[in-house]
Amino acid sequence: MTGATIPGILSGHKTVVVAGSGGVGKTTVAAALGNLAARSREARVLVLTVDPARRLATALGVVGVEGEPRLVDSSGRGELWMAMLDARQEWDRLIERHAPDKPTRDAIMRNHLYDSITRRFAHSHEYAAMERLHQFQTSGEWDLIVLDTPPSRNALDLLDAPRRMRDFFSGRLLGWLTVPATSRFTLQAFRPFRLVADRILGGPFIADLTDFFVLIKTMEKGFVERATEVENSLSDESTVFVVVTTPEVGPVEEAARLVGELDRRNCPTGAIVVNRSTPRIDGGDRLVESPTVAELRLFERIESPELLARVVDVMYDTLGQMRHAAALEASLLEALPGGVPTVALPMMQSDIADLEGVVELADRLAASPVALA
Amino acid sequence: MSTPLGLLDRRLLIVTGKGGVGKSTVSAALAECAAARGRRTLVCELDAKGDLARILGTDPVDYSGREVRPDLVAMTMDTEQSLAEYLKVQVKIPFLGRIGPLARVLEFVATAAPGVREILTIGKLAWEARESDYDLVIADATATGHIVGQLSSPAAIRDLVRLGMIRHQLDWMLELLEDPSKTSAIVVATPEEMPVVETMELVGRVRDDTHIDVGAAVVNRVLPAPFTAAERPVFDTLAAIAPEEDCSPPGFFSAVEATTHALRRREVGSSHLRRLREGLPKGLPVLLLPEIFDAAATHGGIDLIAAALAAEANW
Ligand SMILES: Nc1ncnc2c1ncn2[C@@H]1O[C@H](COP(=O)(O)OP(=O)(O)OP(=O)(O)O)[C@@H](O)[C@H]1O
Ligand SMILES: Nc1ncnc2c1ncn2[C@@H]1O[C@H](COP(=O)(O)OP(=O)(O)O)[C@@H](O)[C@H]1O
Ligand SMILES: [Mg+2]
Ligand SMILES: [Mg+2]
Fold it and tell me: What pLDDT score does B175 carry?
């Protein structure tokens, strides 16, 4: 993998999944990767994003058109499109697709449990993201799709979402719950559970729940097949993962775990991006003592020597702190798995709130040396 | 400004905020402050990541909890154990062993019935705050996306479940949660764009969707001002020296560059902080905690933060 560059990784794949723990800059890096791809070759590039920072989303014009791709930049050789994901809307689409008939579909969408279940269904956002990605992949309209993943406690939730969906349908409890309580098929073993549930939650609530899952069960086949397809597309060789982290303990640990887990599932990590690194100050790598007042005599334009000495002390302290932070960061990064190309992106002086900021970050991505962690 | 904030006199404090902003750090600091002032305190990490114990400088803690300092007990939430405890203590189920592997049942029921996990979490906290001999229970809660669902779960379930013994339990739970002299949420942010936006939204949603009091906003990792008003112009003069007229000591221009970067980051942070202050309800206390350089590497970081918190809140 030596010689791997970010542009190289981008041109060698059709799907780039950007993963990592929350707040590290996944959305920003996804936009920068998309920008880099779209300006360097004639390609239609789609960045599929979730919860972008408000100012960035507004600046790029993707607010209010959730779910539909929107052209955000065509000044390069290719086109950069962006779509914002809306989990609830994806669930409606899923029901639409898999419901056996219109009455079932309407009954599900009208059920008062539908709303809270799709919003809270374990990992419903992750599944929705996977599902939408698959739709765009199979549409044939895109040369490259960059998927920005939803914020989750555990970045692996994303990979597990399709399997969880299958497990949910194949679980015995769903079977039990969807058999009427009076049926002679109700398993003996399920009776105590039912009694407890009735006692704590009350019979009517359990009945509501049962009604809802009887409806959901009609879609089992479609859901399970689909989940398998979505899962397979992740380990396809045209898909690559880019793992984003910041040089902090928690995110680095998460990134290392993620890379290891991806490896176990035969999904290659193309690169690790260490975002928001302390910038390297040129010539700042020598240890320098703050100069003495005598050395400072040359700055004659400052009247008060005490004031001057204090300011210079602060400046050299700040430099020392930055250098110390950079060294600390470097030692933290040793926890990253070896053999994966790693790129550092500096903490910029201000937030990345518009296309200009994205372009600047993309420039850095293209120019940063790639090291093997 | 001189009256101490009454947060430590509550029974239950729920600390929330965007991922990574310092919820566990602030929970630990609050707990240290309370315990040091003689309140018997339970601090509970809800998401079982183990950060809380690490920050407190102690071995991992589990659901049963452990006294890590005098008057300070730390524990980790586990909804499966909370369910088992509930069934045993409250429902007095004689055939607990026969309802099968509890983990699987819970996994399924929690997926199916909205709010089950949430209620098991909030229920345990409320129960400890009401029934145990703790003066104060502090919850190191989950990130913003989930918290409103968690906080509103008792009310939501009360609307869904028309019968069943859980109704009575919900009544006393809500009484505790919705009394601002007993329960407050504390929202943590950092002076950055996303955390600030999420915090303003969250405070609005807690007010609109729950009846739970927001007691304070804590802004963590505020960069200290490097220069006084008198020093700043001196730096500006120095920064204007061009490398061509270089007659400066070694490292001078690197120091200028580093300081310029730090000043710029601080300005960006200050503008986010201003926006947060403007966007929060009037009268909501905003407590600032400094960035501790090297906090993760040097233990004792939490003592510094607890001291800063106590100074800000006037405890
Ligand atoms: N005031 C501070 N100065 C320096 N570093 C800090 C400060 N507060 C928190 N940190 C660091 O920031 C990181 C995240 O803090 P913490 O674990 O408390 O956040 P959290 O909100 O609980 O995160 P999560 O959402 O993942 O639970 C930790 O590495 C911690 O050491
Ligand atoms: N290299 C960087 N320098 C400065 N700010 C950054 C950088 N990368 C990201 N940010 C800022 O950090 C915030 C969070 O980034 P975002 O991409 O939304 O994170 P995530 O998608 O992982 O939650 C945004 O305000 C963004 O502008
Ligand atoms: Mg994001
Ligand atoms: Mg935490």
Answer: 92
| pLDDT of the residue at B18 | 87
By C-alpha distance, the chain B residue nearest A152 is B19
Averaged pLDDT of chain B: 87
Instruction: Name the residue with the closest Cα to ligand 1, atom 4.
Output: B292
pLDDT of residue A1: 43
Least CB-CB distance to B164: which of A21, A193, A200? A200
How many angstroms separate the CA atoms of A38 and A42, rounded?
7
**Per the CB < 8 Å rule, is A325 touching B104?**
no
Measuring from atom 23 of ligand 1, which residue has the nearest CA? Answer: B20
CATH number at residue B208: 3.40.50.300
Assess A253–B contact: CB distance below 8 Å, yes or no. Answer: no
Cα B274 to ligand 3 centre (Å): 23
Domain count, chain B: 1
pTM, two decimals, is 0.85
Interface test with B, best of A88, A319, A329 (most B CBs within 10 A): A319
Whether residue A284 and residue B254 make contact (CB cut-off 8 A), yes or no, is yes
Helix or strand run (H / E) with residue A241: strand A239-245
Domain residues for B61?
Answer: 7-225+283-310
Q: How many CB atoms lie within 10 A of CB A163?
A: 12
Residue B240 lies inside a defined structural domain of this protein = no
Is the CB of residue A312 less than 8 Å away from at least one CB of chain B? yes
SS3 state at A243: strand
Query: Over 50: is that where the pLDDT of A294 sits?
Result: yes
Compare A52 and B141 and report the one with higher pLDDT.
Answer: B141
Alpha helices in A190-289 (DSSP H): 191-201, 203-217, 220-234, 249-264
Minimum-distance ligand to the CA of B76? 4
Q: Which has the higher per-residue pLDDT, B128 or A369? A: B128
Q: Which of A75-79, A197-201, A248-252, B306-310 has the lowest mean pLDDT?
A: A197-201
Q: Choose the closest CB to A121 out of B19, B111, B264.
A: B111
Judge residue A15's burial from the number of C-beta atoms within 10 Å of its C-beta, 0-12 exposed, 13-18 middle, 19 or more buried: buried
Domains assigned to chain A: 6-101+124-157+236-281+329-372 (3.40.50.300)
| pLDDT higher than threshold 80 for residue B185 | yes
**What whole-number distance in Å separates Cα of residue A94 and Cα of residue A222?**
9
